[in-house]
Amino acid sequence: MAKEFDVVVIGAGPGGYIAAIRAAQLGMSVACVEKWKNPKGELALGGTCLNVGCIPSKALLASSEEFEKIGHHAKDHGISVSDVKIDIAKMLARKDGIVTKMTKGIEFLFRKNKITWLKGHGKLVATNDSGYQIDVTGDDASESVTAKHIIIATGSKARHLPGVPVDNKIVADNEGALNFDTVPKKLGVIGAGVIGLELGSVWRRVGSEVTVLEAMPTFLGAADESIAKEAGKLLAKQGLNIHVGVNISKVTTDKNGVTLAYTDKDGKDQTLVVDRLIVSVGRVPNTDDLGLGNLGLAVDERGFIPVDDHCRTKLPNVYAIGDVVRGPMLAHKAEDEGVMVAEVIAGQKPHIDYNCIPWVIYTAPEIAWVGKTEQQLKAEGRAYKAGQFPFMANGRALGMAASDGFVKVLADAATDEILGVHIIGLNASDLIAEAVVAMEFKAASEDIGRICHPHPSLSEVMREAALGVEKRSLNM
User: Fold this and answer.
1) What is the model's pLDDT at position 255?
2) Is residue 449 part of an annotated ligand binding site?
3) Which residue from 136, 135, 130 is spatially nearest to 149, judged by alpha carbons?
4) How far apart are CA 140 and CA 342, in angstroms?
5) Annotated binding residue at 175?
6) Does 282 show up as a binding residue in the annotation?
7) Ranges for the FAD/NAD(P)-binding domain (predicted)?
8) The total number of structural domains that make up the chain
């Protein structure tokens, strides 16, 4: 007889494993289906984010930043260092150790919350008297289980370019780019999005000459224009060669590397020869062989599973979250949706304000924002006020040799409600959380301006930018 569960989650990435834990906390019997295998061939929880995404990339960013600081910036502090070298194998081993620690941590959480891990590929089969039948196919055995409720959380995979085969050695997506065994002398990156900029930064810091080719006519088009302009200037100063408005016509690979033929923004034919190439042109939902059609579900024209504001599909008790549904492909968005769905199943009334989901790019300096950009507010015809304050006027930033960048606060011209906050600077990923809290509670810029911030701290820049909305910054 098939095992029966109140909830079966398909996928154990950030959305899936968090959904499973929250459902278990609420008293439901829960199983989670996951087939991911690490490079050692071992089954692992955590999905793309923990295994080949957010966590390992941040580990490499930290290692490469330490290397750059010691080699190029220690002298500014009066520290003399010579003959600085980096052991790439050890850097990668450190990254892998962090990944293993995190994925094993999820296994512990599953045991703690009495969640059953169904090891294999999950496929929707049919409805039955108790709910829905799901077949799980593993390496050693297969089984069928029944779920009263299903949460599809299968995430996304890297989009590849037609005619550009990815071997993750010479031509790599995000997975291969995390595991280069040597530093490429010349590295090409197709796509100036989050992944391209972060991984391009990693390998530039340890010695690669990096060229980034972006098809869009503007750099970081999703970000506030002033942030994008500052980021482009700072990244170029560091040595990232970024070209926008590029049309790639041909990519040729051989044992010696990769040759890219492209037309630049001025319509001139160009050729780029590199040792290795990273393809980072977005991601596509993972819905392959899920059996959606067996239940009468289908994806939309972009490959996403249609859902409502509470992630319900058109079928009763079937939900989808994270990268397989509309909205930004962000791990923390998936986590919030996982919690929301578990609480909906339990009869609660949660909600998500998607306007309050922050974005972060972990370059140096970091880039983070939440809410509306200035160009969006102009397009909407909404009257607004802006306050901006630079890190160079902040004592803590100067002491940390991190004075690049600024914070910008956008507020409604009449009500002073905060509409958007944009940061480029050290620890922007942490500083943006204050803005998220403020916007969730519909705070005014005056509210942040009147809150006492510790001195000296980077958080003071947020306060000064908020004060700047009313032209009353105190230190400028």
Assistant:
1) 85
2) no
3) 130
4) 31
5) no
6) yes
7) 5-338
8) 3
310 is catalytic: no
Last-in-domain residue among 281, 301, 335: 281
- Residue 344 in any domain: the answer is yes
Query: How many residues make up the chain in this entry?
Result: 476
> Quick one: 216 and 101 in the same domain?
no
pTM exceeding the 0.90 threshold for the entire prediction: yes
Is residue 332 annotated as involved in ligand binding? Answer: yes
Q: Give ∠ CA 362-364-370 in degrees, rounded to 5.
A: 50
**Residue 408, both tokens:** 């910008």
* Same domain? 264 vs 346: no
Mean pLDDT, to the nearest integer, of 173-193?
Answer: 97
pLDDT for 237:
97
181 pLDDT tier (thresholds 50, 70, 90): very high
- Residues 20, 58 share a domain: yes
- Give the DSSP letter string of 106-148: HHHHHHHTT-EEEESEEEEEEEETTEEEEEEE-SS-EEEEEEE
Query: Is 163 part of any known ligand binding site?
Result: no
Shared domain for 87 and 54, answered yes or no, is: yes
Element spanning 390, H or E: strand 384-390
Whole-number mean pLDDT of the chain? Answer: 97
**Mean of the pLDDT values across residues 378-395?**
98
Answer yes or no: do 339 and 366 share one domain: no
Residues 199 and 273 reside in one and the same domain: yes
Q: Is the dihedral of CA 238, 71, 200, 49 positive or negative?
A: negative
Q: Is the pLDDT of residue 1 over 70?
A: no
Contact indicator for 184, 272 with CB cutoff of 8 Å: no
Does residue 39 have a cis peptide bond before it, meaning omega lies within 30 degrees of 0?
no
Catalytic residue among 72, 73, 351, 455: 455
